[in-house]
Amino acid sequence: MASRIVLFGATGYTGDLTARELVRRGAAPVLAARNPARLERLATELGGLETRVADVSDPASVRALVAPGDVLISTVGPFMRWGEPALEAALGAGAHYLDSTGEGPFIRHVFEDAGPRAEQAGVGLLTAMGYDYVPGNLAGALALRDAGEHATRVDIAYFWEGGSAGGMSGGTQASAAGVSLEPAYTWRTGKLVSERGARRVKRFDLGGGRSAQAVSIGSSEHFALPRLGRNVWDVDVYLGWFGPASRAMQAFAAGADLATRIPGVKAGMGALAAKLVHGSTGGPDAAARAGTRSVIVAQASDAGGKQLCSVRLVGPNGYDLTAAFLAWGAEQAAAGKLKGSGALGPVDGFGLDELEAAATGYGLVRA
Ligand SMILES: NC(=O)c1ccc[n+]([C@@H]2O[C@H](COP(=O)([O-])OP(=O)(O)OC[C@H]3O[C@@H](n4cnc5c(N)ncnc54)[C@H](OP(=O)(O)O)[C@@H]3O)[C@@H](O)[C@H]2O)c1
């Protein structure tokens, strides 16, 4: 019998999309959130689903959501502020865990700190199981596979075409504000190296004679792709949302890095960001999402820097992809199809062929 899927954060923008996708796929998730009235409304609209009230300020209420063998999806973010109780609840109960974070420091925490505990407990942790950072894991794995044994590095970049700033949910803005003050990392000569965010700017070929700049970030590919081949010495991941403003973004990040070394400044800026940038304010509607598309590029190269293979994936809006991958991934985990335990990437967690087939089903395809 398939395990229960519990969706924490169901009343948020991404949680709502994920709940609908789970139901569309035939699942009957338990919906969990802090506001009982909104929770009941959603559960009734989706056909009378079970509900649970839980609040991260009361970790026992989050722990009570899951039992051994369950699958917990959390879309309660920003994760560096509110993510821990759900992660702890899954580890404590012996439940598989998926989240929608895009925050590098939280991803690092899941892989480095929580992963070994999950391995001992025999459960899987699939962090960043959305637009951040499933497509880059897929594109990177395909590029490394097709490049063959001489590939030693992979560069990945995420672009979002056709939208504007209004295309971001309140939750994404709140998470981005928090993460801009935190250190990033990369995978260099076979190990994880801390560095500031936006340390590098790189131009990527988008096809059709177009190219665009992107800034370096810390993500899940740095942990997950080196596991796929003994020769993967360097992994760099970039975010291409800033276009021609990438250099300005780099300068801002360098300034923030310096400023936050002054005692008290980081805490002050963090508190200000939390005050000014709010989550739970909704996000782009279906029409706005349909007007944008995701483009993800992965380039595999050899030790001499010669590019051996380039993969370009194009597909739907990032929020639709996030709901899709969370729902599909939870369903796979509930059906006992996870390959291994501990902190897993989407490729080692589900298999490259399985992940590519799921992505294709959602319209994320090689261009
Ligand atoms: N990886 C990706 O590509 C991707 C895509 C989408 C979103 N995200 C991330 O996912 C997170 C959610 O995004 P979103 O757009 O859905 O934001 P959102 O609409 O602000 O949702 C945040 C959720 O957290 C809940 N929450 C806040 N404080 C809580 C508390 N004390 N106890 C329990 N729940 C609490 C909110 O509850 P209420 O509904 O009661 O306010 C809401 O359900 C963000 O961190 C965002 O960056 C990532």
What layout of secondary structure does this protein have?
Blueprint (H helix, E strand, L loop, with lengths): L4 E4 L4 H12 L5 E4 L2 H10 L5 E3 L5 H5 L7 E4 L4 H4 L1 H10 L2 E4 L4 H18 L2 E3 L7 H14 L5 E9 L8 H10 L4 E5 L2 E5 L5 E7 L2 E8 L3 H4 L9 E6 L6 H14 L5 H12 L9 H5 L2 E9 L5 E9 L2 H17 L7 E2 L2 H5 L1 H10 L3 E2 L1
Parallel strand pairs: 1-2, 1-4, 2-3, 4-5, 5-6, 6-15, 7-12
Antiparallel strand pairs: 7-13, 8-9, 10-11, 11-12, 13-14, 14-16
The structure holds NADP nicotinamide-adenine-dinucleotide phosphate.
Give an overview of the whole structure.
The chain has 367 residues and is an alpha/beta fold. It folds into 2 domains: 156 residues, Rossmann fold; 184 residues, Dihydrodipicolinate Reductase, domain 2, CATH 3.30.360. The protein has 15 helices and 16 strands. The strands form 3 sheets. A 7-stranded parallel beta sheet has the order 3-2-1-4-5-6-15, with helices on both faces. The chain has a 7-stranded mixed beta sheet with strand order 10-11-12-7-13-14-16. Strands 8-9 form a two-stranded antiparallel sheet. Strand 5, helix 6 and strand 6 form a beta-alpha-beta unit. Helix 7 crosses helix 15. The longest helix has 18 residues. The protein is globular. The relative contact order is 0.17. The site of NADP nicotinamide-adenine-dinucleotide phosphate has 36 residues, from helix 1, helix 4, helix 8 and helix 13.
